[in-house]
Amino acid sequence: MKLLALLTTAAAAALVAGAAVAQDAPAPAAAEAPAAIDIVRRGDDLPGPLTATGPRRHVVNLETTEVVGQLEDGTTYTYWTYNNRVPGPFIRVRVGDTVEVNMANAADSVMMHNVDFHAVTGPGGGAEATNAMPGEHKSFSFKALKPGLYVYHCATPMVAQHISNGMYGMILVEPEGGLPAVDHEFYVMQGELYTEEAQGTPGLLTESIERLLDEQPTYYVMNGAFKALTGERALEVEVGDTARIYFGVGGPNKISSFHVIGEIFDTVYDNASLVSAPSQDIQTVLVPPGGATVVDLTFEVPGNYIMVDHALSRAERGAAGIITVKGPENREIFEVPPGTPEHQGH
Predict the structure, then answer these.
(1) What's the structural domain count of the chain?
(2) I need a labelling partner for 67 at 20 to 30 A (CA). Which of 56, 108, 154, 321 fits?
(3) Phi/psi of residue 101, each to 5°?
């Protein structure tokens, strides 16, 4: 579904309208491909806050797969994933907990894969322990020593290639006592895809190692695909609700300037530090590749709010999502004069 149809202001429409990038000549069609699967992880697909008061042992089961997934309408890509989704599953533990990681590389994979957790204190973050050829199964365990929101990713050479193809996710290590309660929690990760073909070419696109090494992405994605968190996958809240977004950057190369158009972050846990004093009333947050942030918002006015990387050309290449806020108008805070296009539907 075109993002334009979801917007409520002409300015926002101009920002995200259109998927195409001008080309000197039409690109050739990409290769034919088998039916693609849905690799997009929904923004609300994450476990809720933990309630245990003492240390626990968590079992995390990961399967590395190589699958053809839907990148945008008519366009597919061979993703490398954890559990058939991009990003991989959101893992939630608490400081002091023990985590057992079981990683299986699917038998029909071509590549060796592993997993490196930034939350791990140990060689390679677990990468050395989980090097698995197709059909192999590896395990290790670690104690979560430091609270925070951490990225995990494949660390098999070429590491940047494995990450770009979709092998990243996040693990939340809650502080003692957990985090303050909110009405909604969401899981969003930004990444990059590098292809030989131009953006929007129909068919199965092929990865470009040259563009990857030159750091020239064809697509910027949130949760795996072009403008994936729009339409039926938009994040949904009600007027008056509070929401927490766990936002990370798989990368592998580009910093994100995370921003929600029309909102101000009430609280920002800088660099995803959950024990430092948070910042308040922040407009845009810088998140490096392999890094994360946690932001809290309160929604006072109904409408569609656009999540972007404020390097705004990237919205045209896919880095945009929608938060739909439903409920009564709040004209004390925001009012559009009658007769303007923005007023329609109010």
Answers:
(1) 2
(2) 321
(3) -105, 120
